[in-house]
Amino acid sequence: MLHSRLRPAPRRNPSTTTTAPAAPALGFHDADESAYVEEFPEDVFGAFLPHLFPDDAPSFHGDPGQCLLYSSPRYGELEIMIPSYPGQTGKQSEEVAIGLGKEEGGTEAKEERQLFAHFLWSAGMVIAEGVENADCQATENDSVSQKEAREIWSVSGETVMELGAGAALPSLICALANASLVVITDHPSSPALTGAIEFNLKQNLRKPQTSQMTTVSIQPHEWGTLTDSFSQSYRGTFTRVIAADCYWMPSQHENLAQTMQWFLAPGGRVWCVAAFHTGRAIVAGFFEIALENGLEIERIFERDIVSSDEEGREIRREWVPWREDENPETMQRWCVVAVLKRREDTGDEIGR
After folding, report:
1. DSSP 8-state symbol, 12
2. Residue 267 lies in a domain
3. Domain harbouring 171, CATH code
């Protein structure tokens, strides 16, 4: 089970906790293990919930400011800090995330961008798992699923950009999987840019297997705003663009598609992964906008994020924009995985 990889990290001693001032160079070593204290009973119990209730597939994980341990079969345990926005409670964030409420006072567009960085999203875990599965040496005995994982998710030597990164787990895994460049972006007002991403890099990119050839940077970026120095410098740079659960606000769909087009390198691919907690129709609406903006769908399917088959392989089904018999309980166990590229009739021209 994908979500069983997560459990609460041992809580830190408040007197020794610090916020990383900047993203570190790879190979950084400065972990203060004495900052940890014993795990609380509720944290231990929480770690077993995915095993006790395997059919309960949350779309998002963690609380604002919480640290989680992500158990990676290839890279070991990674400590992931969930971003925290001052004055925002986990309950308020959760209500907005599942569409039950709006923030009081202020326009939704800016506030909800801030709120949605407060979790580690299952869609990001799907991408992280895919990249990890692809980061292995090819052999003659590889299964069909192993070959397909490398075909879709391989990042070794690639240039990667993550949009709406939040806690930036996919970017972190891409750096560990030897991408040549990883640029982590989020909205300029996102709480993720105030320390959580830097913390996650510092804690996890000091592992021995991290490539010294990988360059990692963090950049604020507002979708559709393409005249700033960052956008001008990186136009057409990225062979892999990550967008995990970035589709909940239809008013931003065109801006998001334009950003994908702008930064995508010739021959590059966009990874679009989304759960259906905000509604299947909203996700389908983004694909329509993407097609109108010069992108096309190379492959698309739905994946069960709860169960696997008898041989441990992921369960898939055909993507459809609407399912007559779907309800909130059955909907939450599936996500859509799509690989986009530029439409052939646009050639390799960058931008629109």
Report:
1. B
2. yes
3. 3.40.50.150
